[in-house]
Amino acid sequence: MNKPTNINDYTSVVEADKAHIWHHLSQHKKFETVDPLMIIEGKGLRVWNQAGREHLDAVSGGVWTVNVGYGRETIADAVRDQLVKMNFFGGTTGSIPGATFAEMLIDKMPGMSRVYYSNSGSEANEKAYKFVRQIAHQKYGGKKHKILYRERDYHGTTITALSSGGQDERRDLYGPYTPGFIPVPHCLEYRSQWGDVDDYGIRAASAIEEVILREGADTVGGLILEPVTAGGGVIVPPQGYWDRVQEICKKYDVLLIIDEVVCGMGRTGTWFGYQQYGVKPDIVTMAKGVASGYAAISCTVTTEEVFNEFKSNADEPLNYFRDISTFGGCTAGPAAAIENMRILEDENLLENTTKMGEYMLEQLEVLKGKHQLIGDVRGKGLFLGAELVTDRDTKEPVPESVAQAVVADCMKENAVIIGATNRSLKGFNNTLCFSPALIASKSDIDEIIHAVDGALTRVVGA
């Protein structure tokens, strides 16, 4: 793809950035001697930095967001047209794009019924927790208020979202945390907690029941899980896991919350990750790919049964859901989401995700056969990971610095942007992460694989 024609001298902009911007997830001491990377233009899977260098983005905006790729003029036009007509009104009122997208969304989610708008994945999960807590007070005298979360899963960056986060290094230094959030074991069979067992999926799910019984079933109101664990190492749930999870939730009257912030809108090859496994959730949260980063939007979606809990006893003055998200009333989000969904449908991107995901997984397996450093490859759709180890027999994870060196080499030598677990799991920040836009072609994937192949050779000679 040709270099953009409007690449100029961005020296003054870079200096302004260094002087005033507080970047996410960054130690700024390094910016005393090096410039921060600035991405100033994008088209398809390609982005250009301030120096005009082209990169292939294999992580959809760095954080699994730009599902339909960069430079989508029709989305920008839809947002512009809507903002000129009506940009914002508080969420106590309705809007045309809000109602339209909600209907489109529910059509893709059989069994679900209601959409609550906010503006980030963290906030969407906070709403879900508030649903559980308010229902606990209204129906159970406040007792059934505990919410279970899984080791390695991540549900957001606010204090309460971190309280439900299964990544210790993301939680460090931010306590004390909101009480009532209880961990359950992870489901990564490659690192089985019970040794070599034939029914790992069922065993890992049954561990959830053990926690419920330990805490007291009358105190547990909710369970939040990612359909495929994202930043915790791209963990695909093992066979039998989800069937057993649903059985447990039904048995103990526990609301099942599925966090689709990463997996939603086609990332795994179905509209939502939970649909890969026949799950019937009570609450689903989503953000990132809902509008592919063209506008801020998140949704907390519920069944009609959950919604009706806030309609019963209407005479009670505090019975309704007393919550507001200011920018949940901005019309840019649903306007962008409508066009984003149209693109996903009209360009058959779910089918492409399945096809290209299978191809990429095959190519990662080829790399595993070539490089002893790769202990395991896994994924679903265009959401994949390669776990790096120093020894395949012992499965000793490589130091985080090695995984980051591979990421840096891909960027430097081949201008390919990949990801890796980082500063999340003490001793286990060793998984390379891949999530290219759902428009990815075989040639794009070949370019990614070539970069990783060369990086593994150059970094460790293996």
Automatic annotation (TrEMBL):
GO biological process, one term: L-arginine biosynthetic process
Keyword Chloroplast tagged: no
Cofactor(s) recorded in Swiss-Prot or TrEMBL: pyridoxal 5'-phosphate
Signal sequence residues: none
Keywords: Amino-acid biosynthesis, Aminotransferase, Arginine biosynthesis, Pyridoxal phosphate, Pyruvate, Transferase
SUPFAM superfamilies reported in the protein's UniProt record: PLP-dependent transferases
InterPro entries linked to this entry: Aminotrans_3, Aminotrans_3_PPA_site, PyrdxlP-dep_Trfase, PyrdxlP-dep_Trfase_major, PyrdxlP-dep_Trfase_small
Gene Ontology molecular functions: pyridoxal phosphate binding; transaminase activity
PROSITE patterns, per the entry: AA_TRANSFER_CLASS_3
Assigned protein family: Belongs to the class-III pyridoxal-phosphate-dependent aminotransferase family.
PANTHER family: AMINOTRANSFERASE, AMINOTRANSFERASE CLASS-III
Protein's recorded name: Taurine--pyruvate aminotransferase
Organism name: Ahrensia marina
